[in-house]
Design brief:
The complex is a heterotrimer of chains A (248), B (56) and C (224).
Chain A (H helix, E strand, L loop, with lengths): L1 H4 L5 H33 L13 H27 L3 H33 L7 H22 L3 H34 L13 H33 L4 H12 L1
Chain B lengths: L1 H8 L4 H35 L8
Chain C lengths: L2 H18 L1 H22 L3 H23 L2 H8 L2 H7 L4 H30 L4 H28 L6 H28 L5 H30 L1
The chains are: A mainly alpha (248), B mainly alpha (56), C mainly alpha (224).
Chain lengths: 248, 56, 224
């Protein structure tokens, strides 16, 4: 159904489209990264409480946003593959997982590197850090399931069920962790709850968020091409395409 | 020169800020390099393997 | 045969099998008791420390024991091929699966609650805390069984399935662990536990309405 009104949903067309799109997306993300980093590391003033250490925010917050966004993309793509049998959905979902896991890891590591000078320890059982850690475990479980099931289509279907269940669970886990941490620690001073951020600090943050989005799409194209190779290795069109590439 | 040194010192937080950004760079680059390497391996494997019966 | 009759037939069959293999059903209980007794050995038999930690120990041990029983939900049926019949049967798979999970809950979680009550009493927990633990388990273990069965369905027939199952399941168990242990903590301090109990019940009801469909989809994905 989906395929009929959108030809790019077929792996064959997407394989070409991805190759054409990825340089543009990489270029866009490079420009946005350059602008965001200049704004964040050079132009933005130091925070009056946290000094220069707050500059980690330009890495930490965008990657934390991406970690959740990628999970949503993964689950939606998986659902499309599971329910409407869109092959491309299976491919995108599988390509998303390692990326999402890497963003989650980056968010945790930078949070830790920020927490050390601010809180004096590498790790605090802050609600957001804890649910981010649980998100990392959800990604790792998904990846482990994918690698355990030999057949890629079956793996994609099982992974889609797990990802959808994960999406339903993420808000539940998050709010139960918030409940837990407020009861255990009382009111914590959250480093994220700056009442109002100066515009010169906020604009680089938004630029970095956009840069991460563009970067994610660019790498997703590269990964999706790779997954298409693995998924479609026995199909005639891929064989033809590969031999075309070899002769030209 | 002085500005650059000040910039690199990050108000005394250089270790934390730069290791965060260094780690970010490593992860972002690795995300690009790893699939490209895997694609090369897959292509090599597909090129050497005889064509199985093609599915429609 | 109506769908409901088929579901009860599945339930009865699994309960009878559980009864036939009483020894296998007892193993997780022994494991549970062993884990609980490892803690006094590791942290020393100080009654005060132990009493504050015991609710958490009981909950974590119960979760671990539950994880170890999860492969059993579908493994036997997968081995003898009756799982395929279940999947291809004309009755709604979500309902049939619910029969299996109910049987698993009766043979796994109910004895675990009795065992928790016994161990808690033996190790000197006061009545209010013990009631909060066992009550919390009564309300929370349906979710453990339902979500765990989903992971069991996803990993059925895979090599090294139990470790994978634990990896998938444990993050999803965190809300139950949080509310279960908080209820016990509140009870120990003489505070009301109603909020946590309502949360546990709500989570279990949510799991009861949604997971059977997810499990049916998971079984179809793995076997179809």
């Amino acid at each position: 159904m989906f395929k009929r009104f959108h030809p790019y949903a077929s792996p064959k067309h997407f394989h070409r489209l991805a190759q054409r799109l990825s340089p543009w997306l990489f270029g866009l993300s490079a420009v946005l990264f350059a602008a965001g980093l200049t704004g964040g590391l050079v132009l933005a003033p130091a925070d009056y409480q946290q000094g220069e250490s707050f500059r980690i925010i330009y890495l930490h917050v965008p990657s934390a946003w991406m970690s959740m966004f990628v999970y949503l993309v993964m689950a939606s793509a998986g659902a499309a593959g599971l329910i409407w049998k869109v092959k491309l959905g299976d491919i995108i979902a599988r390509a998303c997982a390692p990326l999402g896991a890497s963003f989650t890891f980056l968010a945790l590591a930078t949070g830790s590197l920020w927490g050390k000078p601010m809180w004096g320890t590498w790790w605090v059982w802050d609600a957001r850090l804890t649910s981010e850690l649980i998100l990392l475990f959800l990604y790792l479980g998904y990846l482990a399931l994918q690698s355990a099931i030999e057949d890629r289509r079956a793996a994609a279907r099982a992974g889609a069920v797990l990802a959808i269940v994960g999406v339903v669970n993420i808000p539940i886990i998050h709010y139960s962790v918030v409940w837990w941490s407020t009861l255990h620690q009382g009111a914590t001073v959250s480093k994220f709850d700056a009442p109002s951020m100066a515009t010169s600090m906020l604009i680089p943050l938004l630029l970095m968020a956009l840069a991460f989005k563009a970067y994610f799409l660019a790498v997703l194209m590269v990964r999706a091409r790779c997954e298409i190779l693995a998924f479609e290795q026995h199909t005639a069109w891929l064989r033809a395409e590969l031999s075309d590439e070899r002769t030209s | 020169m002085k500005h650059l040194q000040e910039f690199l010192a990050m108000g005394g937080y250089a270790v934390y800020v730069w290791s965060a950004y260094g780690l970010g760079l490593v992860i972002l680059v690795w995300n690009v390099v790893a699939p490209r390497r895997r694609e090369r391996q897959l292509r090599a494997a597909l090129a050497t393997r005889p064509t199985r019966r093609p599915q429609p | 045969m109506s769908a409901l009759a088929a579901t009860t037939a599945v339930l009865h069959r699994d309960l009878r099998r559980g009864w036939r293999r009483r020894g296998d059903v007892a193993q997780p209980l022994i494991f549970f008791a062993l884990v609980v007794y490892l803690f006094p050995i590791a942290i020393g038999p100080l009654p005060e420390t132990l009493r504050t930690l015991l609710p958490a120990i009981l909950w974590v041990a119960a979760v671990l024991a539950t994880i170890l029983t999860l492969p059993e939900v579908f493994a036997a049926d997968h081995a003898d091929g009756s799982l395929e019949l279940l999947v291809t049967s004309p009755h709604p798979l979500a309902l049939l699966v619910l029969g299996k999970i109910a049987a698993h809950w009766c043979t796994g979680a109910v004895p675990l609650m009795v065992m928790s009550a016994a161990l808690g009493t033996l190790l000197g927990l006061d009545a209010a805390t013990l009631a909060a633990i066992v009550g919390g388990m009564a309300l929370g273990t349906p979710l453990l069984a339902l979500v765990g069965s989903l992971a069991s369905a996803l990993t059925v027939g895979l090599r090294g399935g139990t470790m994978l199952l634990a990896l998938i399941t444990l993050p999803l168990y965190i809300p139950v662990l949080i509310f279960g242990t908080l209820a016990a903590r509140n009870a120990a301090l003489g505070l009301p536990v109603a909020a946590e109990m309502f949360f546990l019940a709500g989570l279990s009801v949510l799991a009861l309405t949604l997971t059977p469909f997810a499990i049916a989809a998971a079984l179809r994905a793995r076997l179809g």
